[in-house]
Amino acid sequence: MPEASPPDFHDIEVRGVSRRYGRRRALVRANLTCRAGEVVGLFGPNGAGKSTLLGIVSTLMRPSEGEVRYGGRPAAEWGEGLRARIGVLGHDLYLYGDLTARENLEFFGRLYAVPKLGERVEASLAEARLADRAHDRVGSFSRGLRQRLALARALLHEPRLVLLDEPFTGLDDESVELLSDRLRALAHSGAIVVMATHDFESADGLVDRPVCLRDGHVRVLGAGPGRIRERYRAALAEAWT
Amino acid sequence: MQRVVVPALLVVAAVMFMWAPYRIDAAPYESTMGLVQKIFYFHVPSAMTAMLSAFVCGFASVFYLWRRNPKADHVALAAAELVVVFGLIVLVTGPLWARKAWGVWWQWEARLTITLVMWMIFVAYLLLRRFGGPGSEVMAAAVGIFGMALVPFVYWSVNVWRTLHPTTDVARTLPPEMAGPFWWSVFAFLVFYAGLLLVRVRLERARAALDDAYVLLEE
Amino acid sequence: MAALRAAWLVTQKDLRVELRSRELVYTTLFFAVACVLVFAFAFGSPEEDTAAGVLWVAVMFSGTVALGRTFERERQGETLRALLLSPVERGAVYLGKLLALVALMSGVQLVLVPVVALLFHAPLGRAPALLAALLVAGTLGFAAVGTLFSAMLSRARSRDILLPMLLYPMTVPVVIAGVEGTVALFAREPNLAMAETWLAMLVFFDAVFLTLALWTFGAVMEE
Q1: Could you tell me if C185 and C122 are in contact, meaning their C-beta atoms sit under 8 angstroms apart?
Q2: Secondary structure of residue A192 in the 3-state scheme
């Protein structure tokens, strides 16, 4: 657990990252830059490499080729302190079903050495509208509630880089609003938000820079007019080099 | 260079193995066990080779685990297979000798048991690589390292607990008429091992190149 | 040290989760006792060494079950990934899970040992401290290897069959030393010095493999 707060980074650079398993290529020479204040959306069919890319950026996986730079420095140079600046909302939510909502947050908060933990946990629970369920076992929560708690967990330590894998799955309208507002606010405050999703509607007002993935290839669509779904379909219809 | 080295090694090994029986035959009988003892000239070098291969696998695994260099992985796999092969020779010649020398096919004592265990660990290594799915090379590397760490236990066990099994001092105290054929045999096995290792590594490298070609094709 | 504190956090969490559901304690204990009963029926007339052997086999089998379940639980929310994503040293995560497993197995042994002693007429009172030391050292060795293998196999296919396949050969030295030491303890003419020698070997094994596991855990868990 870090003693002092490590310096922040303002961008991440994915440079020529490839990832293969034997004969299967999950990612092919991916290049991508994400800056602070941006919400980057990763779109693509299942198996296109979105989760793999997120996995590599989160430092869970090692690329077969290439590297990721955080503020110009590779992960090895940062050491453990890098992970203190990254928050991940995984597809499987990363919550302990046998512990209560509060206990989950307290456990991870301690691991991340979150200062003034008690206050932060209460504030987090309030923001996620889970204050009344704080004492309940997470196993008894619905998917939507668990998603809200998982997001609270991911953001508890105020990360600089926020990675989300399918965050809108199973959320009702109200929760989608809540989440979008939260992510927008995060980006405004200087975080880098990278999100993989299928939900074009929710992504439309939120994503600044859509990125398309297909068969491990990455194509940045960039800012531009038109709804993301149309631009995505158009991109998929083209032949990629 | 490879095209010369590997055949050279195998030819040298073949010649040495062809000559070995003559040398072994010329060696004197050991006092208590008679003719049967001569299996020792193949049994012990096999054991030495198996343990050497375990170390090769272990070191290659260390290299692979931290650097993820595919060449290291090829060496680790080849070495693991050879531990299983030479270990099998040890485990077959051992009981053959034991039956005649001590009257039992097998004894559950330190040296035999731990050799069997080491052999099983490397069989498990191969099964893991075969059935573990993607990413099993990394996991197998951990197994290879642990397997290597077990080898010293194999070596020292017989010195710490004196049992039926001859101790490791035997090699050093051999009379010259026995030492000659013994070290000849050891050298033959090592040369053979080196040749086999290089061949297997080359095969593995070719397989990896084929995978690369498939991948390039799809791009 | 920060890493030790983090390890302790993980252990506490594991123990708290376990106390909530008590699933592992009950099932592991039941499994261990069932094992012993099967052996009691299998060995019609127990010989002198049977008690020691049965005890250690039951410890190993039930330990494997506990290991499998512990990591299966982590797979449910992919929480092992969450632990690896946190800024703590990888070794601390390993240590935390290791200590929790040792605590669980020791708890089970508190019941298991008297049961074995009862069914197989083993003299428990003869040198209880030495017996306890053998069990702790053996459990530690088993758990040291097991925690590493089980964690790394979380991602693998066929993990249910691969875990015992890897674990049993690797922990044979633990079983040998444990059984031989216990036999020396339980024998009609007990040889406590011999038991102590085996204990020393167990401790040595523990030191070597614990160090190895701590060293390799981080690298192995990186996909």
Answers
A1: no
A2: strand
Q: Comparing A128-132, A157-161, B108-112, which segment has the lowest mean pLDDT?
A: B108-112
Chain B residues touching C156 at Cβ < 8 A: 128, 132-133, 135-136, 139
Joined together, the tokens standing for residue A190 give 């200087």
Has residue B54 got a pLDDT over 90?
yes
- Residue A12 forms beta bridges with which residues? A34, A70
Are A155 and A162 in contact by the 8 Å Cβ rule? The answer is yes
3-state class (DSSP) for residue A40 = strand
Q: What is the pLDDT of residues B160-193, one digit of tens each?
A: 554 545 555 555 566 777 777 888 888 889 999 9
How many CB atoms are located within 10 Å of the residue B176 CB? Answer: 6
User: Which value, to the nearest 10 degrees, does the dihedral of the CA atoms of residues C43, C47, C49, C54 take?
Assistant: 20
**C21-27 mean pLDDT:** 85
Question: Radius of gyration over alpha carbons of chain B, in Å?
Answer: 19
Residues of A in contact with B68 (CB under 8 A): 62
Q: How far apart are CA C52 and CA C46, in angstroms?
A: 11
Residues of chain B contacting residue C145, judged by C-beta atoms under 8 Å apart: 146
Q: What DSSP character marks residue B133?
A: -
- Report d(CA C82, CA A62) in Å as an integer: 16
Give per-residue pLDDT as tens, A138-168.
Answer: 989 988 888 889 999 999 999 999 999 999 8
Tokens 């070794």 correspond to C91
pTM of the shown model: 0.89
Structure tokens at B1: 């260079």
Smallest CA-to-CA distance from C13 within C61, C77, C109 is with: C77
What are the tokens at A31? Answer: 């290049």
- Helix residue ranges, H only, chain C: 2-21, 23-42, 50-76, 79-85, 90-120, 128-153, 159-170, 172-186, 192-221
> Across the interface, which of C157, C165, C201 has its CB nearest the CB of B124?
C165
What are the residues facing B34 on neighbouring strands? Answer: B30
Sign for the pseudo-dihedral over CA of A78, A83, A88, A92:
positive
Amino acid at position C71, single letter: F
Q: Identify the bridge partners of residue A25 per DSSP, sorted by sequence position.
A: A20
Place of tokens 């191969």: B126
- Map out the domains of chain A with their CATH numbers: 11-237 (3.40.50.300)
Mapped onto helix, strand or coil, the DSSP state of residue C13 is: helix
Q: Does B211 touch chain A (CB under 8 A)?
A: yes
Give chain B's end-to-end CA distance (angstroms, integer): 33
The backbone torsions φ and ψ at residue A32, rounded to the nearest 5 degrees and listed phi first, read -160, 140
Q: Are A207 and A41 in contact (CB under 8 A)?
A: yes
Cβ contact (<8 Å) for B131 and C173?
A: no
Tokens of B119: 């052999």
Residue B31 has pLDDT above 70, yes or no: no
Neighbouring residues of C156: CB distance < 8 A, sequence distance ≥ 6: B128, B132, B133, B135, B136, B139, C162
Nearest chain B residue to A216, by CA? B219
